[in-house]
Amino acid sequence: MTDAKRPSATTPEPIPSTDEALDRLAMPLDAAMMTQRAIRRVLPDPVDDAVVLRCIELALQAPTGNNGQQWEFVVVKDREIKRRLAKRYRQAWNLYTRFALRYLVRQDPATARTVKAVQWQVDHFEEIPVLVIACLRLGVREGRVTGLRMPHPAESGYWGSIYPSVQNLLLAARAMGLGASLTTMPLWNLTSARRILQLPANVTPVCVVPIGWPRGRYGPSTRRPVGEVTHLDGYGVRTWLQPLDATTEPDESTRRPTADTSTEDPETSSEITNVSVPQA
Question: Is the entire prediction scored with pTM above 0.90?
Answer without folding.
Answer: no
